[in-house]
# Entry
Amino acid sequence: MMYTHRLVGTRDEATLEILDTAFKMPQDTLEKHIRWADGFILMYSVTDRHSYQDAHKLKEMIFQLRGSDTPIVLVANKHDLLTARAVTEDECDNLAGEMDCPRFQISVAEGQEGVNEAMEELLVLIKRQLVKSLSAPTPENVAGLEKRSRFVNMKKAFKKKIVRSRSDTF
# Structure
């Protein structure tokens, strides 16, 4: 199921489209969504080992389809139900370590603040990834920069020549 959420941060706002994969979908549809998304929040319940295993499987799919530098935030929900815990904190830490991503422990039952923090963090990671991809040297970018650099150098040299020739005549 797809949800839309408007996130108003301290510096800007964004509209997020959120795909809830708790509803089972065909593998090819899930892969299509993984290729489309800019980032991921993998949420599982600390009281449900199966949801933790699903988050781990999704992580594997994301890494396979998008690479390990894809923006991901790991969210452990139902943190308030400590006595019913089926997933240890060490397991949570290990999964976050495997993904090299931030981890949040929240309780949706206690309010939406933790969810908003996770979404804001994901937005920061997506922006960072976008800046990184725009500034990364690709063959096209490098060729464009070299051409521009040559052009700028020619322009500067031409200006110097004009300035010199004007000063020579006076």
In short: Confidence is low (pLDDT under 50) at residues 144-151, 161-170.
